[in-house]
């Protein structure tokens, strides 16, 4: 049973705070292990990666077989059924069409003092995408990371994916190919992150690493942050559905379960202004949990972290939503756009009853890599901007330097940075001489 | 003496790699201390902050005096000389005018399938700006952090600044006031970062923390990353000047020294296509080092990390520059814009001989918080975007869901996420019924 809350209840605030504060994930402390692995890869390169892959993935590689060959990729892609291939292509096209609109513009202007100012954007030269092996090896995530990188103009895009016992996921290989990935290596874990960050004899280093992974991968990403760029460290997935009574309880139940089935630590919350509807959804969930393939996982998530909150009105729902700052937010109400305008903190918003969150996981177009654990308060989903950086530009004319140089000199003196001031003063003196 | 390199020399590549790889900073390992401080502040709130401030800053505070009162700020501001006040106002206006242009636009469109897609930006609700005490307490940095936050629309902007022995920096207080800072607390170190991230009885928590600090502050920011957003961890400052022989050696010497005087770990590099000019700059540096107030610091930086590199031509200079990926890049050549177009990785570019880097530190307009230690390969200077986040939006019509829903269902099945597929299928079945 999920927790049932009602904002009219006297103890609502403490119960809601308990829900917000629930610790859903116990990350094992693997930092020492990861530090040792990174050092080993830095010291010994390929040899370390090969040994660790033999140990963890039971696969004996050589420097020549670390990389998945074009022929192998071709062979894997050929195994994908035609309908799945077409679906991946549809997804890639739609993700590309959305992300192309994110490509930022350069700007340049001349200000009243005559200074020319501006900035320009450029892609990172090389990016690495970590793809987990096993159950969580999702071709859709390959597209969601690789397509924005390629849209950004990343020249060299590398995928690492562990293939324990030599088993590859044909859909992952096809997604990599469709997205234009340049190199694929059959390695995983902290050793893959270390190889991407520092390079080995066979694997050239990259500048930015994105993609989800287990505790070892997350710890390794934290450690190499600074040497390379990384994306956010993702926590378990979450959905908040705000629905009025005019919805099919089974639709909403399925939306809640589509997060819950990811992970026992996932969280699904319904906020409704109709208590009867809330009970109907709870019943619909129970019914679905009788037959869902992943009912053990979804049931545990729903039991431990699920919640149904009854509110007085939708304005109250919006305020609670901003406190939750959900990764995914479905608005299944008559005026979804109007309600959306009242909400500030959310990774992605899905409007109306025909926009189940699962559409956004695959083919909607927006990215499905989104801020979890209330981090939508300060961060955004993955985008083209994550694979680009901005260089600012300025040019002073003699006139501009005369106009604003003295202020710089004054501030340099106030900060006791004499050479800063002199570098301006020497030029002003020259200009005043002539 | 700095190191002199010439790309024509046989050992150039190894010498250049040594320069790139030079370890300029030994961060002490303060992680355990910082972890304990953060835990203490989380457990005991104000009481812990007050004790730690007494211990480290020799200042006895109460919950009532943690915050600097409006009267105190007023009194400090009144101490600032008129020319410095005007210079700060000029700087703030120019920084604001530049950053206003960075405010991103929202987008929304309807695609051929009838889906409405888009995104919108919103500011973080509350941001904290760490300002160091003592020597590195720069009012210009207050402006560079606070102005973009206010331009972004941050509702609550908090400054923490340690005031050891009760000594405040009037210019810092005035910069905070000019930039529109809402609250100022006289605390510093890891305890300030912990208070900003987790809150205490007196200090409400923020969502994002920016600003420079010592090793304790940097370690604390790394630790609270995820609970709140942080900016990049800044390393020692750097400048690369690319200059042809048609420059005044003393101007270039002063520009090199204006980084070197920051810190013994700072790095100043000149690349020139004129070996004689390089030697003339070295002589001009030596002359300036005889009299500069901070000659001990600047001299050590120049001796240990300075370099003058002679190249065959400016194309070679551009290629070396991209390998250095400098924080600051001055282009003092006849066609600075043309050379700039050949460069991809740099935090900020200053064009022409009348644009000394120091202009950018204070009044140019672009931000002076820039990526160090080669991180311009993958990251950007501080901007309005650092105080905003993006929410993606999507709405499917029945027609759009019919068009793309089946592809989502196929991919959900391929990823063994049954509820994902069913959440789409249930709606498609309903639509097909009607």
UniProtKB/TrEMBL annotation, chains A, B:
Binding site for NAD(+): 130, 191, 214
This protein's pathway: Amino-acid biosynthesis; L-histidine biosynthesis; L-histidine from 5-phospho-alpha-D-ribose 1-diphosphate: step 9/9
Pfam families (UniProt xref): Histidinol_dh
Active site: 327-328
Keywords: Amino-acid biosynthesis, Histidine biosynthesis, Metal-binding, NAD, Oxidoreductase, Zinc
Positions bound to substrate: 237, 259, 262, 328, 361, 415, 420
Source organism (scientific name): Maritimibacter harenae
Family statement: Belongs to the histidinol dehydrogenase family.
Protein name: Histidinol dehydrogenase
Keyword set includes Metal-binding: yes
GO molecular function: histidinol dehydrogenase activity; NAD binding; zinc ion binding
Entry EC no(s): 1.1.1.23
Coiled-coil intervals: none
Cofactor(s) required, per the database record: Zn(2+)
Gene3D superfamilies: 1.20.5.1300, Nitrogenase molybdenum iron protein domain
Note on how the cofactor is bound: Binds 1 zinc ion per subunit.
GO BP: any one term: L-histidine biosynthetic process
PANTHER family, A to Z: HISTIDINE BIOSYNTHESIS TRIFUNCTIONAL PROTEIN, HISTIDINOL DEHYDROGENASE HDH
Keyword Oxidoreductase in annotation: yes
Top EC group: oxidoreductase
Function: Catalyzes the sequential NAD-dependent oxidations of L-histidinol to L-histidinaldehyde and then to L-histidine.
